[in-house]
């Protein structure tokens, strides 16, 4: 009886690990899609309302459906209001802060954290390019995340269960 | 009390200026690669780490980073939102303080010149000096009539401060006043702390004088319109339009004396538009007050 319970626990643990990994891959894809949406909102806010970066971050945080992304923009807005000369640095720090919660990979963070290096520092025409670059980066990351999702979610789920069963067989 | 300007400055510069800050400071000048300096009572003082420096070696040299930092601060980290002001060579910040810009000009796709690379920043400390307008108001007001008036002085001699005071006194005495504040300097409406321009004053902030004056006449039925720094022909046309619509104007213009504005804009144009002339001296006091009748 103990062996059966132990085996069940091992399989359960390995499966949940596999399922968790798969869920993170899906979450990463969804979050990149949400971030892309946020960049698109930024684009329209800048184009039609000519708000400052700080106000744009705040506006995005208010309409963003995803809590983590909203928090990323809200905290960035609060900090940018206090130190408007440090927007690029603030964005970098904040993306680093939320990378775990958003399930972003190191490559994602490296790309996302530098999209706003020139944000607010140039005229409107150049700013359009900055937002376009952010959008393109998010689109590129989304394609990679989507591929990763298609390729690896099933694999992780299957692997979780299989590894659990395999360990049980060895132990029994 | 510290000026609202200090919060925009890099920490080092802020500390240096904070130590010597007083009500007499008129301007703070930051020029790339040059010593930091302030103007007090019309005189230039260079600033070092220990306050006012006596030699150039002690002076703090402004770096490109200082300029970039300050520029980002005064534009709320959003240079693009101030594009129009920057094209005109200034940004107005909290408290109606104006920052003048100098730099490299580039031409945009429409052939308009604008400043790209900023070399110098000039902070002008705006102040409200209540009671400085009493004498002027006495001169331009006769019973229920306010004469079309122009305040004449070189830059930095207190034109805007005087206009602000005239607006406050006239407004509080029951006239309907409208201030067309193109550069947000007279009333500082975009700031947390605005200037007192009277209880009966409406403000058009950021409007050009032409648009603001015609809109005021159409929408607010003012008795007096106040506008700062006439310069272009369309500004004079707008004032004449106001005058012909039965609305008095109190404006200001850059010139050393009355003869200068006559040379620049022609006697006929000036006397057609204005009936009272107030000339300010470099000591920021009223130098002379002339009526149109006195002009030969």
Question: Could you please describe the fold and organization of this structure?
Answer:
The complex is a heterodimer of chains A (172) and B (296). With 172 residues, chain A is mostly helical. Chain A has helices spanning 2-49, 53-63, 67-82, 87-98, 106-113, 124-171. The relative contact order of chain A is 0.18. Helix content of chain B is 29%, strand content 30%. Chain B has helices at 11-20, 64-74, 83-87, 134-140, 159-172, 209-219, 233-244, 258-265, 267-273; strands at residues 25-31, 37-40, 43-48, 51-52, 90-92, 98-107, 113-124, 141-142, 145-146, 149-153, 177-181, 201-205, 224-230, 248-254, 276-280, 286-291. Chain B is globular and about 55 Å long. In chain B, helix 6 packs parallel to helix 7 (233-244) and helix 8 crosses helix 9 (267-273). Chain B has a 7-stranded antiparallel β-sheet. The mean pLDDT of chain B is 89. In chain B, strand 5 (90-92) and strand 6 form a beta hairpin. By secondary structure, chain B is of the alpha/beta class. The chains are: A mainly alpha (172), B alpha/beta (296).
Structural class of chain B: alpha/beta
Judged by helices, strands and strand pairing, the structural class of chain A is: mainly alpha
Stretches of chain A where pLDDT is under 50 for at least 5 consecutive residues are: none
Question: What helical percentage do the residues of chain A reach?
Answer: over 70%
Order of helices and strands of chain B: HEEEEHHEEEHEEEHEEHEHEHHEE
The backbone outline of chain A, from C-alpha atoms, is: elongated
Strand content of chain B: 25-35%
Based on DSSP secondary structure assignment, what is the total number of beta strands of chain A?
0
Oligomer: heterodimer
Largest sheet of chain A: none
């Amino acid at each position: 009886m103990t062996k059966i319970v132990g085996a069940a626990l091992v399989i359960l643990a390995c499966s949940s690990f596999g399922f968790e990994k798969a869920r993170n891959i899906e979450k990463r894809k969804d979050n990149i899609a949400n971030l892309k949406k946020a960049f698109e909102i930024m684009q329209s806010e800048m184009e039609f309302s000519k708000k400052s970066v700080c106000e744009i971050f705040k506006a995005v945080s208010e309409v963003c459906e995803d809590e983590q992304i909203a928090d990323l923009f809200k905290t960035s807005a609060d900090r940018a209001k206090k130190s408007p000369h440090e927007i690029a640095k603030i964005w970098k720090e904040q993306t680093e802060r939320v990378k775990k919660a958003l399930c972003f990979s190191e490559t994602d963070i490296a790309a996302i954290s530098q999209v706003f290096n020139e944000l607010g520092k140039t005229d409107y025409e150049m700013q359009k390019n900055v937002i376009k670059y952010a959008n393109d980066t998010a689109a590129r990351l989304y394609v990679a995340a989507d591929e990763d999702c298609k390729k690896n979610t099933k694999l992780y789920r299957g692997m979780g269960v299989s590894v659990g069963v395999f360990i049980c067989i060895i132990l029994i | 009390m510290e000026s609202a300007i200090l919060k925009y400055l890099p920490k080092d510069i802020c500390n240096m200026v904070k130590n010597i800050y007083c009500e007499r400071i008129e301007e703070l000048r930051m020029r790339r690669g040059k010593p930091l300096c302030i103007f007090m009572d019309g005189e230039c003082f260079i600033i070092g780490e220990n306050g006012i420096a006596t030699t150039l070696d002690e002076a703090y040299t402004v770096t490109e980073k200082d300029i970039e930092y300050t520029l980002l601060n005064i534009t709320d980290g959003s240079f693009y939102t101030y594009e129009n002001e920057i094209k005109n060579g200034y940004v107005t910040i909290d408290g109606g303080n104006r920052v003048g810009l100098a730099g490299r000009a580039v031409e945009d796709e429409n052939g308009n010149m604008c400043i790209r690379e900023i070399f110098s920043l000039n902070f002008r400390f705006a102040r409200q000096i209540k009671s400085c307008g009493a004498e002027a108001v006495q001169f331009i007001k006769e019973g229920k009539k306010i004469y079309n008036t122009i305040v004449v002085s070189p830059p930095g001699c207190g034109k805007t401060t005087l206009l602000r005071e005239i607006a406050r006194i006239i407004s509080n005495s029951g006239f309907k006043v409208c201030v067309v504040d193109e550069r947000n300097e007279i009333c500082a409406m975009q700031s947390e702390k605005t200037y007192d321009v009277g209880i009966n004053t409406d403000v058009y902030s950021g409007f050009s004088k032409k648009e603001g004056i015609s809109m005021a006449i159409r929408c607010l039925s003012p008795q007096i319109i106040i506008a700062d720094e006439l310069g272009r022909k369309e500004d004079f046309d707008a004032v004449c339009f106001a005058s012909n619509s039965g609305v008095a104007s109190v404006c200001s213009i850059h010139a050393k004396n009355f003869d200068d504005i006559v040379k620049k804009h022609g006697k006929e144009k000036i006397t057609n538009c204005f009936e009272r002339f107030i000339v300010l001296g470099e000591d920021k006091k009223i130098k002379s007050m002339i009526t149109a009748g006195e002009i030969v």
